[in-house]
Structure to design on (75 residues):
């Protein structure tokens, strides 16, 4: 089960990073726009944190993408 969580967290993190790069944002700018600490954004992108639904929605809104896009490759 822990391995599954890790795979999911890494896939979501890769999707967040890809969308952030597409918009030319730094982790700091994305964190500010999403009202999240930039270090947290880095943890998420590296798959080191399991993100809550609320924070996933914050990131999606800041990235101007539907939240489901951040699940690409997960489901």
């Amino acid at each position: 089960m822990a391995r599954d969580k890790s795979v999911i967290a890494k896939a979501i993190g890769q999707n967040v990073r890809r969308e952030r790069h597409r918009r030319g944002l730094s982790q700091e700018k994305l964190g500010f726009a999403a009202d999240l600490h930039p270090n947290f954004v880095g943890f998420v992108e590296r798959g080191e944190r399991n993100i809550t639904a609320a924070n996933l929605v914050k990131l999606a809104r800041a990235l101007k993408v539907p939240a489901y896009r951040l699940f690409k490759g997960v489901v």
